[in-house]
Amino acid sequence: MIYIYDILLNWTKDSRLKEFYEWNLEDDLEHIKKIPIIRVSEKFIKDLLTSKIRVDKAFLPKIKDKAESYFHNDIDTISYAVIVSCDKKALALELDNAGNIIYKSSMLLDEEEEVLEMILDLQTTNLSYQVIKKNKAFNFLTRQEEEEKKFLIKELKKMKNNKESAKINYLYQEFFQDQSVDYNTKVKLLESEINKEYSNFHKKLFKLLKLTTIKRK
Q1: What's the pLDDT tens digit per position in 69-119?
Q2: What stretch of H or E contains 194?
Q3: Closest Cα to residue 17, out of 82, 86, 90?
Q4: What is residue 101's three-state secondary structure?
Q5: 3-class DSSP assignment, residue 76
Q6: pTM here?
């Protein structure tokens, strides 16, 4: 088994993987001392990106305690962690003792390129696994756009619960011409627009709500 050394990973439990250009300092970044690498099929990588899967437990002894991370001045052993890679993509995985993938991480560009070079001479591991559940329909939003949509949904819900009719009226007036509709219709129209695909509407509404949030503080 081969290893890559001294890399940075960004573990996430979310079905949506954070690509390296979307990483933030607040993320769960971990400095890995070493981690094993295996070559897998492109189909396995695709299923990792689109589904919740469970790897056959028979694979686990091959990687048990072979990954290590730096923790302050100590070195921690990670029970089950591995980097899987096909010719096009590399992903880091942490698994539990049943073979469930509990964390995933993309890689920094230069470190991923290093892995892609390292697997060229490796045989593909025939990894048995089970698709537990398909993820929700994949969207092509950036991390920031996705967070903005979540913020808008949360803020509108808060305004509804607090009955902030003046604020609802103001936001509605910024985007819609027809002012003859009642309050409930305005709320429904704003909700409907927020739930559509990301557009300039979301960008502008996000900026407006951020301004009002700052003023409240």
Answers
A1: 998 889 999 999 999 999 989 999 999 999 999 999 999 999 999 999 999
A2: helix 183-194
A3: 90
A4: strand
A5: strand
A6: 0.67
